[in-house]
Amino acid sequence: MPVGRRAGPRDPGVGGRPAVTSGPTVDDENAAFWNELCGTSLARQVGVTGRSADDLRRFDDAYLHFYPYLDRYLPEDLTGERVLEVGLGYGTLGQVIAERGAQYTGVDVAAGPVAMMRHRMVLIGRSDCEARQASVLELPFDDAMFDRVVTVGCLHHTGDLRRAMTEVSRVLRPGGHALVMVYNKWSARRLLAGPALLLRRVIHRSGRAEAMRGLYDKDQSGAAAPHTEFVSRRALRALFDGWRDVRIDRRNLSFGRIAFLRRPALTVGLDRIAGLDLYAQAVR
Description:
Number of domains: 1
CATH class: Alpha Beta
Number of strands: 7
Oligomer: single chain
Strand order of the largest sheet: 3-2-1-4-5-7-6
Largest sheet: 7 strands, mixed
Shape: globular
CATH superfamily: Vaccinia Virus protein VP39
CATH architecture: 3-Layer(aba) Sandwich
Number of helices: 11
């Protein structure tokens, strides 16, 4: 569920390979790929095929069962806070933010997630909230416009993580809060999958990078996300240089095909050591 514009220069401490600058932009590719809502596979697993209030409630219950810590990163009361969410997916977190009283704005590079978020806002009686297509690399907002920026599972897909963070910083007021989740470069999944993917590359001559991306995000056709950047904890902290109260957690231990409803019982505590995701909380 990324919001990006064009692949740009990559910092060696954050990425590892030079950005692709020819052909379709990362933004174009992301707009096409993520038009299928992030969470579509989960929706199918739990039998959600529509967009009624009951369907979305069933999806949200399953989603927050899978990520039981996610909404706890946000205050219970967001009344009056101007909150920007970057990367909308199926809309669960955006709805939580709006239901907690925030003046909510959501942006995504793809039309599908924007349409879903607008639909959700109507269902919960928050048509005053806004969702629009926009690039996190060039956000259409004034400086210091928001009290809080939330972006979960998005910035690592944009092609220019450093620039995305610069924009997050720009639109956040001094003293404002940010919650940023990116993929952990040193997760158990990456470390265990790496040798197998290298062997696959030798035998089948398939791209190791593409196969690794597919372990994390792929659409219903089996295609991998166009761009994914894996970030070390040190590199993520460096992106928050000049911020204060920076805290980074590891979360989410999964190896891809573990039975959905059993997952929390299998991963209690272990995600803090080798989780897939890095959650950064910081004050501007």
